[in-house]
């Protein structure tokens, strides 16, 4: 003959086998809420650690970008010096400068076109779709659509 011992919760309190159902439900609710609180604490700690790691990564990316920017400056200086073997140094610098301004102008025009296509930042088709759905629910037929 085996005897069953009551389960022992984490807090060390034993529950009697003949304890009322209401008390058991209250204890279960307590245990579940403690478990949820513990899980939230764990999630906060984990997010804090990941946030620190992400911050370090972003900082390193920023440093890499700064060094790449300086590298681009050195490459431009190299182009000017290399071109100065064929033409006077001032003309080499002027040619490289005009080339850089031309690239910047083309990039600005392309960027302006893309920004104007993206504005206003409202999902117009989705808004019209929701409006049509609401009208259909009200029993009206959407504008421009015939059955």
From TrEMBL:
Keywords on this record? Answer: Membrane, Transmembrane, Transmembrane helix
Q: Can you tell me where the transmembrane regions are?
A: 54-83, 89-110
InterPro entries in alphabetical order: Phage_holin_3_6 (IPR009937)
Does the keyword section mention Transmembrane helix?
Answer: yes
The source's domain of life comes to Bacteria
Q: What Pfam families does the entry give? A: Phage_holin_3_6
Per its record, how is this protein called by name?
Answer: Phage holin family protein
